[in-house]
């Protein structure tokens, strides 16, 4: 670290994963969070120092759902300073694919697989925006705007 | 910040910008760095806390080149722990467009506009990878693999 960086505070890198399951077209894996903020969310978490963001996504998916996720593509980056009330996070969001049945563990009280519009519960953080952007991307091939 | 996050160290979010100039097709804006590591690079820098990554990209482009950049799209995220010898950084890379002539300032000793394969100098950090990925994207529409 160079001396002139020490005085700055920086946002924290996180990951979130849009997991598509084999045999469940149009559905995604959601978790019910075991910790604050409570509610439903995409699987995800913090990137460790010296960890690639892609590896963090695979690790968090495994920890929270038990699934071995193959990352298909990097979808987008979400950095609204108000996206997480606890601190400023910058989330790299991946689209991944997995087989099997997710089982909630670690930060996840349980995991559910359903179509985004059938969840029937609000999503925490800015995950409703991420899921809406994903739905638009799948339907029309349109990626989110640069500032998201 | 929740108590259970305090013990972790995290990588630092950065941005880099692939700037296309009106009237200069096939060329990009590069800077010669005024600080270590010395050499040529894409314009970019650290994301401040409470700053959107897209705003950081526009700010850094302005500071280092004087250009008012319009971001066109979010290209990819680069997080190789060895990409910057000083510390682990996670860079969100944007493609942007600008008019005019870049003038190096701040971290940039000077700015140059040229085709990536005509620069004639090695790029610092992992910027040669970013530029090669960009060239492949422009030529064939192929985005980089998720882990980059």
Can you describe what's shown?
- The structure is a homodimer of 148-residue chains.
- Chain A contains 2 helices and 7 strands; from the N terminus they run ββββαβββα.
- Chain A has 148 residues and is of the alpha+beta class.
- The first copy, chain A, has a 4-stranded mixed beta sheet, sandwiched between helices. In chain A, strands 3-2-7 form a 3-stranded antiparallel beta sheet, with no helix packed on it.
- In chain A, strand 2 and strand 3 form a beta hairpin.
- Chain A is globular, with a radius of gyration of 15 Å.
- Chain A binds chain B through residues 1-2, 5, 8-13, 35-36, 46-55, 57, 71-74, 76-77, 79-81, 86-88, 90, 92, 94, 143-144, 146-148, and chain B through 1-2, 5, 8-13, 35-36, 46-55, 57, 71-74, 76-77, 79-81, 86-88, 90, 92, 94, 143-144, 146-148.
């Amino acid at each position: 670290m160079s001396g002139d960086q020490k005085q700055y505070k920086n946002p924290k890198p996180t990951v979130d994963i849009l997991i598509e399951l084999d045999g469940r077209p149009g559905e995604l894996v959601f978790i019910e969070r075991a910790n604050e903020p409570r509610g439903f969310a995409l699987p995800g978490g913090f990137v460790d120092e010296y960890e690639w963001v892609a590896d963090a996504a695979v690790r968090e998916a495994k920890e929270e759902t038990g699934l071995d996720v193959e990352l298909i593509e990097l979808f987008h980056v979400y950095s609204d300073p108000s996206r997480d009330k606890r601190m400023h996070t910058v989330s790299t969001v991946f689209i991944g694919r997995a087989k099997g049945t997710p089982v909630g563990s670690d930060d996840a009280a349980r995991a559910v697989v359903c179509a985004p519009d059938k969840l029937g519960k609000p999503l925490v953080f800015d995950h409703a925006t991420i899921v809406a952007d994903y739905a638009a991307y799948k339907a029309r091939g349109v990626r989110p705007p640069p500032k998201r």
